[in-house]
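It would be a great kindness if you could assist me with a short task in structural biology. The matter concerns a single protein, recorded as an amino acid sequence and a row of backbone structure tokens. The record follows directly beneath this note:
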Amino acid sequence: MRIALDAMGGDRAPQVVVAGAVAAAREGVEVLLVGDEAQVRAELARLGADLPVWHAPDHIRMEEVATEVRRRPQASVRVVMELLKRGEVQAVVSMGHSGATLAAALFVLGRVKGVERPALLVEFPSLKGRTFLLDGGANADCRPSFLVQFAAMGLAYAEASGALAPRVGLLSIGEEEGKGNALVQEAYPLLKAALGERFYGNVEGRDIFLGTTEVVVTDGFTGNVVLKLAEGEAKVLLTWIKEALTSSFRARLGALLVREALARVKARVDPAQYGAMPLLGVEGAVFIGHGSADALAVKNALLRAKALVEAGLLERVRQKLSALHV
């Protein structure tokens, strides 16, 4: 199985992207680097590595509009989608312009039957393992039917990740049926009818980290706010802990005793451990990472993509959508 990596995507491309690809290749991932061949091969030479490169002379910069992919067929993010559509690779990973990646996937690959809008899935650590939230930002405004499709795709992803009989929660401002805005109130009966016992009901923001349900659905505006809030809070909490543990000689002695435990906690909340978010609902395995990603995040994105393709993620998504009781 081969994965196409947009080597020009991200704030520090191609340096960290190529470094992450080399690290993933050493762990058994077959990577095809797509981007400016001269720049990519220079980075490979610097690292003393040799990976296949597909030349793409153009790339979409972070400040450009997403729709540029339609008129620039040689842009790296467009080329990786074309390779996926032709079956020359089995998955695509990009740490670049998320809007351009979404636009390229829709333009080249199209949507899975039954999907009105694709969704970004965000993975959060929880007390019970992991919670998967959709949509993480692909659709700021949603119709109730979108949330039903997000739920089906989220269940498919959860099962591909090893969850047994996962359930779906609808993000709201209260657990009781009838709470929430118009979107939540209209989506509730649709989810209940479509998912049956797999639908838990309303959940609140704290339930994401408590692990009340394995899957949580919401509109992309709310989901992206939740994501950025969680990332910011984790960073601030770790900073406060570090300040507290270095505030005195006694605190520094205590820090030595808990250093390994704190390192494990830090790893659990580090976005780099998850690598990239899958774009569910397009006809292909597409994964989108942070533009600020480091080499570790790139490596983990490639490892995650490989594992999920091997678990039959796309076919699971198709099956869940076709089985909806709507």
